[in-house]
Design brief:
The protein has about 170 residues and is α/β, with parallel strands linked by helices. Helix content is about 45%, strand content about 20%. It has 7 helices and 5 strands. A 5-stranded parallel sheet has the order 3-2-1-4-5, sandwiched between helices. It is globular and about 45 Å long. The termini are far apart.
Length: about 170
């Protein structure tokens, strides 16, 4: 089998998100997806109408650091339709985590639209109950007020939040 046809036979998925910041819940979904697929791309989706706490470059750096131990994970960014990213990179599946019923309602609609637009399938993975209440927004709010987020995010994220917000014990 040629190198090209072997690459086209790989099962590839993308785990999209803003990752501002990445949480233990995100890392759990990424790790579990990496066990199901030959290659997983963690894609930081760029929304020019939103200003994040971390720049896109910082998010990419953090994600590369926290996924370094998972050999089949790569990190990238994308602005535009996720299905266009999938087409350009030969990705057949989107892997996303679900924390609640409200997540399911929204993600089901997106999954159906993405399949209609491109044929890309979506794998909706139930969250680890330990992270069901964790969101990037809540983490940022807690950290802004000096709260302890050590059990909610990987160590490097905790350090970066402390640096960014000036709270040594975030």
């Amino acid at each position: 089998m040629s190198k090209r046809s072997a690459a086209s036979q790989q099962r590839r998925a993308v785990c999209p998100g803003s990752y501002d910041p990445a949480t233990n819940g995100h890392l759990d979904i990424i790790d579990r997806a990496a066990k199901l697929f030959d290659e997983v791309t963690v894609a930081v989706l760029v929304n020019p109408s939103k200003t994040g706490l971390f720049t896109i470059t910082e998010r990419l750096e953090i994600l590369r650091e926290i996924t370094a131990a998972i050999p089949n994970v790569r990190v990238d960014s994308w602005q535009g339709l996720l299905v266009d990213y999938c087409r350009q990179h030969g990705i057949a599946a989107i892997a996303k985590g679900l924390r609640s019923v409200s997540d399911f309602d929204y993600e089901l609609q997106m999954a159906q639209m993405n399949r209609e637009l491109s044929g890309v399938e979506t794998l909706l993975m139930s969250n680890n109950p330990a992270y069901g209440f964790v969101s990037s927004s809540l983490v940022k709010e807690i950290a802004r007020y000096g709260g302890d987020v050590k059990n909610l995010v990987p160590g490097v994220v905790c350090e970066r939040l402390a640096e960014k917000l000036g709270h040594p014990d975030s």
